[in-house]
Amino acid sequence: MNKMSEFKELELETIDLSEAAEEERLQSILQNMNGVHTARITRNGVHLIYNPKGITPEEIVNAVRQAGFTIAYLQPG
User: Fold this and answer.
1) For residue range 41-71, what is the model confidence (pLDDT) as tens digits?
2) What is the spatial distance between Cα 54 and Cα 38, in angstroms, rounded to a whole number?
3) What strands, in cross-sheet order, belong to the sheet with 8-14?
4) Domains in the chain with CATH codes
């Protein structure tokens, strides 16, 4: 079985990533979460690859919100 087939993608659009320090902080928070394989900051937010056996989209969204970021749009992969 292909290891990558165990992973899913998630796009989060955030409206408050206007500074590099904020981008770095959000990326660090996400990459340190169990179950998140990669977190890449994009033009409009963040693109994640995660293992649904280790973390849910709801847990990811809650962590982002608890860190003080606003999610404008969520697109499950």
Assistant:
1) 998 889 999 999 999 999 999 999 999 999 9
2) 13
3) 36-41, 45-50, 8-14, 71-76
4) 3-76 (3.30.70.100)
12-49 pLDDT, tens per residue?
Answer: 998 888 889 999 999 999 999 999 999 999 988 899 99
| Average pLDDT of every residue of the chain | 89
**pTM to 2 decimals?**
0.85
| CB burial string 38-68: b at 16+ within 10 A, e below | ebebeeebbbbebeeeebebeebeebbeeee
What amino acid is encoded at 20 in this protein? A
Interatomic CA distance for residues 72 and 44, integer angstroms: 10
Strands 36-41 and 71-76: unpaired
Amino acid at the residue 4: M
The residues that bridge with 36 in the sheet, in sequence order, are: 50
